[in-house]
């Protein structure tokens, strides 16, 4: 799938930002905390969310402010990240194969983290997974609600009619079956 | 690159993951034995990679030499790969840098060793070396 070697690189800008976030922010947060308005206002003030989104500093100690990361170091970290993805995928795939599954799932990735001695990632990852599931659920419910509102008026009457007709048919069929059984017994 | 940055605020909501999922998927799929990946596994891998990047950076800085200068350098990273068991898998892509003169010296020492071995074995290994 990846035909050129550069397809396997991660964008440097994003990597740099992630490192800088570790450098500059007081705590490592799950994205759910900040609203788009806070993020997009351009005021330059980051509003930290309430407590539970932060992870304990003991787990993720930060770089102090203003650490200079050389260009060479940045590209090395980026390469390391690609290798990490491959390593994690390969480990997770082993767990999937053990379970005789073809598709990698979330628990495979979590098991892989433990296998790779990155146990410290498991808790934040589980929290991220929950946040992701909540987000997906929210999206699904929102779209279903929209659909319902749209269909409610037009479908309501038709559905009632349809249900009555189905019942009639079922009754007829039952009667036929009973007759058939009687005939079979006679033979 | 642009899509990753734009993707962050595109829907007007903060994103869980800043790394581009499509790129992560390409890297995951480049592993030949992997057949398919579900979306949750993809999101988790991307998130794990972000944690990894931050952990590698902070770990290398704390154990590194540049604390007084407030700098994180390549050699801090390659030291981490060499010394930490957890980061051992990076040793191949973060090789330690050495001076060319030192390398040549190492090469010469190795050649001398090989020659000794060769003469002991009586094999014709000299041709392979250049």
From TrEMBL, chain A:
Keyword Cell division: no
Biased composition (Acidic residues): 165-187
InterPro entries with a match to the protein in the record: CBFA_NFYB_domain (IPR003958), DNA_Pol-Epsilon_Subunit (IPR051377), Histone-fold (IPR009072)
UniProt feature, compositional bias: Basic and acidic residues: 133-164
Keyword annotations of the record: Acetylation, Coiled coil, DNA-binding, Nucleus, Phosphoprotein
Domain Transcription factor CBF/NF-Y/archaeal histone: 64-113
Biased composition (Low complexity): 33-53
Entry annotated with the keyword Nucleus: yes
Family matches, as Pfam families: CBFD_NFYB_HMF (PF00808)
GO biological process, alphabetically ordered: DNA damage response; heterochromatin formation; leading strand elongation; negative regulation of transcription by RNA polymerase II; nucleosome assembly; regulation of DNA replication
GO cellular component terms, semicolon-separated: ATAC complex; CHRAC; epsilon DNA polymerase complex
Molecular function via GO: chromatin DNA binding; protein heterodimerization activity
Top-rank taxon: Eukaryota
Biological role stated in the UniProt entry: Accessory component of the DNA polymerase epsilon complex. Participates in DNA repair and in chromosomal DNA replication. Forms a complex with CHRAC1 and binds naked DNA, which is then incorporated into chromatin, aided by the nucleosome-remodeling activity of ISWI/SNF2H and ACF1. Does not enhance nucleosome sliding activity of the ACF-5 ISWI chromatin remodeling complex.
Full protein name: DNA polymerase epsilon subunit 3
Origin species: Canis lupus familiaris (Dog)
Lineage: Eukaryota, Metazoa, Chordata, Craniata, Vertebrata
UniProtKB/TrEMBL annotation, chain B:
Disordered as annotated region, ranges: 109-130
Gene Ontology molecular function, alphabetical: DNA binding; nucleotidyltransferase activity; protein heterodimerization activity
Cellular component, GO annotation: CHRAC; nucleus; pericentric heterochromatin
GO biological process, one term: nucleosome assembly
Domain of life of the organism encoding this protein: Eukaryota
Keywords: Acetylation, Coiled coil, DNA-binding, Nucleotidyltransferase, Nucleus, Phosphoprotein, Transferase
CDD domains attached to this UniProt entry: HFD_CHRAC1-like (cd22924)
Keyword Ligase annotated: no
Occurrences of domain Transcription factor CBF/NF-Y/archaeal histone (ranges): 18-78
Signal peptide boundaries: none
Intracellular or extracellular location(s): Nucleus
Gene3D superfamilies registered for this protein in UniProt: Histone, subunit A
Acidic residues biased stretches: 112-130
Subunit structure of this chain's protein: Heterodimer with POLE3; binds to DNA. Component of the CHRAC ISWI chromatin remodeling complex at least composed of SMARCA5/SNF2H, BAZ1A/ACF1, CHRAC1 and POLE3; the complex preferentially binds DNA through the CHRAC1-POLE3 heterodimer and possesses ATP-dependent nucleosome-remodeling activity. Within the complex, the heterodimer with POLE3 interacts with SMARCA5/SNF2H; the interaction is direct and enhances nucleosome sliding activity by the SMARCA5/SNF2H and BAZ1A/ACF1 interaction. Within the complex, the heterodimer with POLE3 interacts with BAZ1A/ACF1; the interactions are direct.
Alphabetized PANTHER family for the sequence: CHROMATIN ACCESSIBILITY COMPLEX PROTEIN 1, HISTONE-LIKE TRANSCRIPTION FACTOR CCAAT-RELATED
The protein's role, per its UniProt record: Forms a complex with DNA polymerase epsilon subunit POLE3 and binds naked DNA, which is then incorporated into chromatin, aided by the nucleosome remodeling activity of ISWI/SNF2H and ACF1. Does not enhance nucleosome sliding activity of the ACF-5 ISWI chromatin remodeling complex.
Name of the molecule in the record: Chromatin accessibility complex protein 1
UniProt organism field: Canis lupus familiaris
